[in-house]
């Protein structure tokens, strides 16, 4: 099992919720105190350094026009991490390629970060969250098709070394693709793709990419991983190793259960402070029209965690929290229920979880949870 | 889910690369042929207007690919495709002097047809059409319908918001499925550039048939000034402002609009 410390790098100092319409897309950036934002970035980077020192890997992501994530340019932060961490693998999960107009630029950015980090980069691709189609003016219809064309173009850009090729696809057109530099890892950096539903798994399995699921709990995750395994079996390939499966959960480990739960309560800012109106949560085309119709009629979305308590979230396998032995037990249980997985993405910082609390959570996990789990699960090297 | 039309219930409106394009086509009335191109409200929501027109015309009202109960072939993803498809259809049926009435998004489709080929069109009527760029680069000519609440959408689409679908939790399921499917199609065809073709306005001078541009005086999606600019761009076009109507003027003032169409077609 590989462990990855992740913070979404929020700017949590927001006006009272009842006074704003949305924390995404429309919240004016005048809310930000730039000096405070700079200080936050110093501490978030320091937390990734702590994770590296503790022997954990690091993970970052990218979002746009939102107080929940101050990183609209993941490659920039990945490049920094490439220089201020020593051993950690650096995962971007991910590049929102259905929303990026120029996949060749993404291929170039990733190649550069791979060099800067001396081959420690893991490249995740995501379709992009629904809120962001307005912020980045990305058509919410046919996003999955667009994402896959972008991934294919990026792969070809990384692995073509005999001069320019042209690409005249449905969504992207390029005359002379010949990226300089090229990645350090050969033939290309490892690729991850996220999937929140079983329907997305087959295409990821076909390319043998790592499949990553976020906050989907025991049931949702089991179905997604099963769809991947089924597809591999259907296509006559050997059973995929655990290192093809990743899961992200809010995680806080304390010395005691009480301390662990207290930390997790603060992490819940991530799910509770996500006030966004329907028109940005479910833009037309992002989900099948009949699913959106249910939303229009006021039915609750499966990813609306607002009404759930911490206890509910732990019960569903969306939060791992408590003392080291409690957290170990929760992760073991999760491993059993989903049929095994090899990467745990630890959302170990959110909202008002302060620096010292975050660091304590990372260290306690690394010192008291990880060694025991390593005894249980083979510590797979990251596939390159 | 909605049951889309199939080869038994649909109408073949064209053949593209050997594949038939099937649409849900509603026909009613008698008299000269009138092609009615709906907007985001969907063909079903224009019933009163369609009935009023049917007293004087043979109304042919297709649901565009992806809207209502019409399937959408995968290749069909632009307003250009819709314009060519309907021009092809008029040709296949060997129709002449067709009155083409385009409503909002359908007005854009009608305008794209007319700049390409007017030989089978007798009269053109555009009702609160989108499709052109009028203001400067920082002027939002067309309200972003994908970024506002349902209540605001109703208040902008209708002079009297009560004319709209209202609280969708209380609306018939079938209607909500139609709304969701129609909005998805609107996003597909009109996301970027947003509900317009930057090149369309410069070619509107090619519309060589008598044109009438009708505008709801309380249109909160696209202003009457935009409508006047639209009419000014089409040689000899007449502009009519209709009181007591918002963006979807045909829903709130169906009889007034039908009379204007009859008068224009005379």
From TrEMBL, chain A:
Annotated Gene Ontology cellular component terms: cytosol
Name listed for the protein in its UniProt record: Luciferase-like, subgroup
Matching InterPro entries: Bact_Lucif_Oxidored (IPR050766), Luciferase-like_dom (IPR011251), Luciferase-like_sf (IPR036661)
UniProt keywords, alphabetically: Monooxygenase, Oxidoreductase
Tree of life domain: Bacteria
One MF annotation (Gene Ontology) recorded for this entry: oxidoreductase activity, acting on paired donors, with incorporation or reduction of molecular oxygen
Domain Luciferase-like: 43-339
From TrEMBL, chain B:
GO cellular component term of the entry, any: membrane
InterPro entries from the UniProt entry: AB_hydrolase_1, AB_hydrolase_fold, AB_hydrolase_sf
Domain AB hydrolase-1, first and last residues per copy: 32-254
Keyword GTP-binding among record annotations: no
GO molecular-function term, one example from the UniProt record: monoacylglycerol lipase activity
Superkingdom in the source lineage: Bacteria
GO biological process: acylglycerol catabolic process
Keywords: Hydrolase
Pfam families, A to Z: Abhydrolase_1
Protein name in the entry: Alpha/beta hydrolase fold protein
């Amino acid at each position: 099992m590989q462990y990855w410390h992740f913070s979404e790098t929020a700017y949590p100092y927001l006006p009272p919720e009842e006074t704003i319409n949305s924390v995404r897309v429309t919240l004016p950036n005048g809310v930000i105190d730039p000096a405070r934002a700079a200080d936050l970035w110093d501490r978030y980077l320091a937390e990734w350094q702590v994770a590296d020192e503790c022997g954990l890997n690091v993970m970052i992501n990218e979002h746009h026009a939102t107080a929940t994530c101050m990183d609209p340019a993941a490659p920039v932060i990945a490049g920094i991490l490439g220089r201020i961490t020593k051993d950690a693998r650096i995962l971007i999960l991910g590049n929102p390629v259905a929303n990026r107009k120029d996949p060749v630029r993404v291929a170039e950015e990733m190649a550069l970060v791979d060099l800067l980090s001396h081959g420690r980069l893991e490249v995740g691709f995501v379709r992009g969250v629904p809120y962001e189609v307005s912020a980045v003016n990305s058509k919410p219809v046919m996003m999955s098709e667009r994402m896959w064309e972008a991934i294919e173009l990026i792969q070809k850009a990384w692995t073509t070394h005999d001069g320019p090729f042209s690409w005249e696809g449905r969504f992207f057109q390029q005359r002379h693709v010949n990226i300089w530099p090229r990645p350090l890892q050969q033939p290309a950096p490892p690729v991850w793709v996220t999937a929140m539903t079983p329907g997305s798994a087959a295409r990821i399995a076909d390319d043998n990419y790592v499949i990553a699921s976020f906050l989907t709990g025991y049931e949702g995750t089991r179905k997604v991983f099963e769809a991947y395994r089924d597809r591999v079996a259907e296509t006559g390939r050997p059973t995929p190793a655990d290192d093809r499966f990743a899961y992200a959960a809010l995680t806080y480990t304390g010395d005691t259960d009480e301390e662990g739960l207290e930390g997790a309560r603060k992490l819940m800012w991530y799910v509770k402070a996500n006030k966004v109106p329907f028109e940005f949560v479910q833009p037309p085309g992002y989900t099948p029209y009949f699913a959106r119709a249910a939303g229009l009629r006021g039915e609750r979305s499966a990813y609306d965690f607002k009404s759930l308590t911490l206890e509910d979230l732990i019960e569903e396998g969306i939060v791992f929290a408590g003392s080291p032995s409690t957290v170990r037990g929760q992760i073991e249980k999760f491993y059993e229920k989903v049929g095994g997985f090899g990467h745990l993405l630890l959302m170990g910082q959110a909202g008002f979880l302060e620096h010292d609390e975050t660091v304590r959570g990372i260290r306690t996990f690394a010192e008291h949870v990880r060694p025991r789990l390593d005894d249980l699960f083979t510590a797979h090297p990251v596939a390159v | 889910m909605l049951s889309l039309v199939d080869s038994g219930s649909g109408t073949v409106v064209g053949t593209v690369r050997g594949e038939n394009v099937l649409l849900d086509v509603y026909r009613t009335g008698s008299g000269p042929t009138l092609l009615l191109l709906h907007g985001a409200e969907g063909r079903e929501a224009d019933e009163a207007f369609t009935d009023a027109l049917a007293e004087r015309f043979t109304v042919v009202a297709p649901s565009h690919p992806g809207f209502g109960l019409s399937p959408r072939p995968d290749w069909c993803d632009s307003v250009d495709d819709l314009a060519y498809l309907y021009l092809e259809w008029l040709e296949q049926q060997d129709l002449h002097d067709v009155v083409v009435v385009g409503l909002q998004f359908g007005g854009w489709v009608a305008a794209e047809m007319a700049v390409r080929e007017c030989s089978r069109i007798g009269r053109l009527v555009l009702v609160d059409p989108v499709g052109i760029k009028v203001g400067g680069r920082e002027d939002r000519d067309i309200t972003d319908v994908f970024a506002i609440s349902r209540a605001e959408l109703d208040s902008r689409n209708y002079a009297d918001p009560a004319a709209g679908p209202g609280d969708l939790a209380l609306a018939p399921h079938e209607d909500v499925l139609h709304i969701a499917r129609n909005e998805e199609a609107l996003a597909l065809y009109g996301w970027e550039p947003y509900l317009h073709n930057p090149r369309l306005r410069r070619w509107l001078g090619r519309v060589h048939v008598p044109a009438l541009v009708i505008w709801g005086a309380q249109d909160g999606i696209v202003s009457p000034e935009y409508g006047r600019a639209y009419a000014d761009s089409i040689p000899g076009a007449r502009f009519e402002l209709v009181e007591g109507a918002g963006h979807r003027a045909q829903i709130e003032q169906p009889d007034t609009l039908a009379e204007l169409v009859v008068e224009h077609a005379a």
